[in-house]
């Protein structure tokens, strides 16, 4: 997540300029706002329900939310040109006499939908939720916003690198084909699918909502988006909570680099939990036996793809399935993943297996085009924000070096992706501001946004405070993990605007 130069987009705010005759030389007038048509738009609030099968819409409706479409320019350098829409939802404050303002949400990804999040976030906020308009935003080209779809055969560009050079070359060819599809289907909009443009959209939303400042809650990638917004639009944030913190010097197409140790730690903790439940899952009575079952699955997939329902799962996909199973530290998530490993082991032993629900959904995501829009937007944002190395040899050497340390995760986190074949970004990455009084939240064992990221941003922003959840392999904490210690600190800050006097340490409950 490197950054070089930062500059606000030209013309985003009105500026004062000295004028020539006929006005007096000392007079000044306001230059017309080039974004006036967007800032002055009237939002039409309506039901969030799109049809009888719209579960998200019904949940929003039951929570009292309404939805609207915000019009924004595709290209902020050409505000009079093509427009797109950004879909938002809102649960209005009920305690209007103590209203703080609007709280905008981003659930991460990049490319994740957030429009449906206000109900559960409002619940996590407890009493303080009544003092905010809680606003969910599907960022540009995500979810209900103007769509983007590269027609990929997968919902994710992440894959293992295979077992040898021939396997790596096939992986590189797959990545190149994904990039080619995006250039073919969406090449005219790809340059504008960036975090900086998403931040610009957020400021249009702020003005359209009639807010002088906005509060913000961002998870995972959303923590980076929050850093970018606060940098590009200083003075326009109120209370900022960043959970699962991405360090800006680490953000980019290779954002998984350096997560291997945390991934391995999470896998070992899950294996210990599963070993204590051998009667349920039958994967072994010791942690080592359960880990050996995972190794058996990977080795078998390298010889012959595993048959799981209608899918064939090979050595490129198995480590990604394992990776996807290790972000939530709770019994339900652990159980889903244990069933998945049991299914894969049975397939490795030659059985025809109908995958359990979590595994079936994961394989559909990885091996069908059902979630092509998600993978398309995720890669478009990462590739559009920061340049990636272009030479496949760079990735091959990194994979080989990482494989020696971690044969399961190393070839995933270091592998080549479509950004190696992408057009260069139009803008340089944002150089994040020097300081901001924000509340940072992170678990010590987070396998996605490792604790290092939170420590880095805490050091960058001395006015901030860090709430640490110790002893959990958990990605995203507030309102998700069930830590009253964390949730109480976050809600106190949202209620008062006052950060804790010092950093806070919270102990995780046992997942076993």
- Radius of gyration computed on alpha carbons: 24 Å
User: What's the SSE pattern?
Assistant: EEHHEEEHEHHEHEHHHEEHHHHHHEHEHE
Uncertain runs are 1-28
Helix content: 25-40%
User: What percent strand?
Assistant: 5-15%
Query: Tell me, what's the shape?
Result: globular
Class by alpha and beta content: alpha/beta
Distance between the termini: 35 Å
- β-strand number: 13
Strand order of the largest sheet: 3-4-6-5-7-8-11-12-13
Overall pLDDT score? 93
Please summarize the sheet with the most strands.
9 strands, mixed
Q: Helical region count?
A: 17
Would you kindly provide a written description of the structure presented here, covering whatever features stand out?
- The chain has 512 residues and is α/β, with parallel strands linked by helices.
- It has a domain at 165-188 and 257-421.
- The protein contains 17 helices and 13 strands.
- It has helices at residues 36-39, 55-62, 118-124, 165-186, 195-208, 221-232, 260-275, 278-281, 287-303, 318-324, 331-348, 357-367, 372-385, 392-405, 410-413, 451-460, 484-496; strands at 16-18, 28-30, 66-73, 83-91, 101-106, 132-138, 214-219, 237-243, 306-308, 311-313, 439-443, 465-470, 504-507.
- Helix 17 (484-496) links the parallel strand 12 (465-470) and strand 13.
- The radius of gyration is 24 Å and the shape is globular.
- The two termini are 35 Å apart.
- 52% of the residues are buried.
- The model is unreliable at 1-28 (pLDDT under 50).
């Amino acid at each position: 997540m490197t950054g070089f130069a930062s500059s606000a987009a030209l013309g985003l705010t009105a500026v004062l300029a000295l004028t020539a005759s006929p006005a007096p030389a000392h007079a000044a007038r306001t230059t017309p706002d080039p974004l006036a048509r967007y800032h002055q738009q009237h939002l039409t609030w309506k039901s969030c329900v799109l049809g009888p099968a719209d579960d998200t819409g019904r949940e929003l409706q039951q929570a009292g939310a309404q939805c609207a479409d915000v019009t924004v320019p595709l290209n902020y350098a050409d505000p009079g040109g093509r427009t797109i829409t950004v879909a938002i939802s809102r649960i209005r404050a009920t305690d209007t006499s103590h209203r703080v303002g609007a709280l905008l949400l981003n659930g991460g990804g990049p490319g994740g939908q957030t429009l449906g999040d206000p109900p559960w976030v409002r619940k996590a906020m407890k009493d303080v939720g009544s003092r905010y308009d809680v606003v969910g935003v599907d960022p540009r080209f995500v979810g209900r916003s103007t769509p983007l779809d590269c027609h990929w055969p997968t919902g994710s560009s992440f894959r293992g690198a295979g077992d040898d050079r021939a396997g790596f070359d096939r992986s590189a060819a797959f990545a190149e084909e994904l990039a080619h599809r995006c250039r073919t289907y969406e090449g005219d909009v790809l340059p504008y699918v960036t975090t900086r443009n998403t931040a610009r959209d957020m400021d249009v939303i702020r003005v359209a909502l009639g807010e002088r400042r906005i509060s913000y809650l961002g998870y995972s990638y959303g923590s980076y988006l929050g850093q970018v917004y606060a940098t590009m639009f200083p003075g326009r944030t109120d209370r900022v909570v960043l959970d699962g913190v991405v360090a800006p010097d680490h953000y980019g197409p290779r954002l998984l680099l350096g997560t291997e140790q945390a991934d391995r730690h999470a896998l070992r903790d899950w294996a210990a939990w599963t070993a204590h439940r051998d009667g349920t899952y039958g994967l072994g009575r010791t942690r080592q036996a359960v880990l050996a079952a995972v190794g058996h699955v990977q080795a078998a997939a390298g010889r012959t793809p595993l048959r799981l329902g209608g899918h064939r799962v090979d050595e490129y996909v198995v480590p990604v399935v394992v990776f996807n199973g290790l972000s939530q530290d709770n019994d339900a998530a652990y159980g889903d993943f244990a069933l998945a490993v049991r299914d894969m082991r049975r397939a490795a032993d030659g059985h025809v297996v109908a995958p359990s629900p979590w595994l079936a959904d994961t394989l559909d995501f990885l091996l069908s085009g059902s979630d092509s829009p998600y993978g398309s937007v995720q890669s478009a944002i990462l590739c559009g924000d920061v340049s990636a190395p272009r030479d496949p040899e760079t990735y091959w050497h990194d994979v080989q070096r990482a494989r020696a340390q971690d044969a399961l995760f190393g070839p995933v986190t270091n592998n080549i992706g479509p950004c190696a074949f992408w057009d260069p970004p139009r803008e340089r990455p944002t150089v994040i501001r020097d300081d901001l009084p924000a509340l940072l939240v992170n678990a010590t064992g987070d396998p996605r946004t490792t604790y290092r990221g939170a420590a880095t941003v805490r050091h960058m922003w001395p006015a901030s405070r860090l709430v640490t959840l110790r002893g959990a392999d958990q990605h995203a904490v507030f309102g998700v993990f069930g830590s009253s210690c964390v949730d109480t600190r976050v809600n106190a800050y949202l209620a008062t605007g006052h950060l804790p006097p010092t950093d806070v340490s919270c102990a995780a409950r046992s997942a076993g």
